Amino acid sequence: xxxxxxxxxxxxxxxxxxxxxxxxxxxxxxxxxxxxxxxxxxxxxxxxxxxxxxxxxxxxxxxxxxxxxxxxxxxxxxxxxxxxxxxxxxxxxxxxxxxxxxxxxxxxxxxxxxxxxxxxxxxxxxxxxxxxxxxxxxxxxxxxxxxxxxxxxxxxxxxxxxxxxxxxxxxxxxxxxxxxxxxxxxxxxxxxxxxxxxxxxxxxxxxxxxxxxxxxx
Length: 217
Fold this sequence. Notes:
This protein is mostly helical. The chain has one domain (41-213): Lysozyme. It is 55% helix and 8% strand. It has nine helices and five strands. Strand 4 (162-163) and strand 5 (166-167) form a beta hairpin. It is globular.
């Protein structure tokens, strides 16, 4: 409980690293931390889809600027957290709802198309597909996703950082973080640090009130 009461984000990250190291070199040499251990089965695969959904959705909105008014977005109008605009203006609560609904649809699609992936991979790939639709994936990336190997998938995914032929700093950073999430599937210390960084970015860019306007169901 002390960990969650500490408001200083830097100290929280320091404690996370220390705790991971202590656990790693414990009697059972088990590197899983207590904070996420309940989400693993015996084969170290995530099984709690509520946890995976919140992790993936936070990854998405950390790179989607919240817009209350619709805007032109590469051939169509978007609004809120980058979803298709249905009206000129949108509330934060509605934007959260629309974004989460769209993410669930992407998850269902990825599960159907790529059943060989682990649940963790499916949720992260769905978060990628929220921004980088499958229709834009080239054969090289598709083939690497079929391997089911995160270290192989990221070698192609990292290159999808252009819009209209121009490399965009925001897409470079987005692909980098998405790749880090993928390869962190079996590195719990790295994953916890990524989740903390993602939540910090959301608070910096949009304010902590973002998390107070979410219907968690």
